[in-house]
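For the sake of transparency, this paper describes our internal protein records without simplification. Because each token names a local backbone shape, the row as a whole describes the fold. One such record is reproduced below, unchanged from the form in which we store it.
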Amino acid sequence: MGVEGCTKCIKYLLFVFNFIFWLAGGIILGVALWLRHDSQTTNILYLQLGDKQAPSTFYVGIYILIAVGAVMMFVGFLGCYGAIQESQCLLGTFFTCLVILFACEVAAGIWGFVNKDQIAKDVKQFYDQAFQQALMADSDSNNGKAVVRTFHETLDCCGPDAVVGTLTPLWRDDLCSKDFLKGLLQADASCHKKIDELFSGKLYLIGIAAIVVAVIMIFEMILSMVLCCGIRNSSVY
């Protein structure tokens, strides 16, 4: 015998929440794949300075997001099917998956909060090393110049700070493609500032998505427990 009354409303409400959860998983998966293949980040994070590779901390977070999005889609489908079938076994499995996923999201959020400044810091250090090599007399013997030009062209910046960015075109037009007047008038030409803006904007987007998903997951855990108890009680009568 199926559930009736308020429990039936909870059943369909849980189905709706799970469908939204499934869609959210698809959105997170899509956003993560977009961040993974975004031209700005790929141009910078695929660079190699001699034997030194660009920092990969950002991509670690992206791969975590891809895994989370895929798991969310699977769990959302499991919850929808379990709610429609009124299966205590599927709902119990769904609840367990939600708890594990929620714990992983909290852990990932803590990791991201701890490393949010480190990502930009590592990339800026990598850029500074390339910039110093590019300024050396024997810069043609390494790829420092190519790395620096990639940063400058991708982020539309010049030099690690505004002062260097303004003066560099005077004597190193092979590093900064913009003309001197543009470099003089552009106050935000610092590559350090552009790197901060690049990663802080993307992490802000990830944080908003994580908060929305966490709220949906809490509601789903509550509804799944209530529905499971309602199914158990209805089977007694």
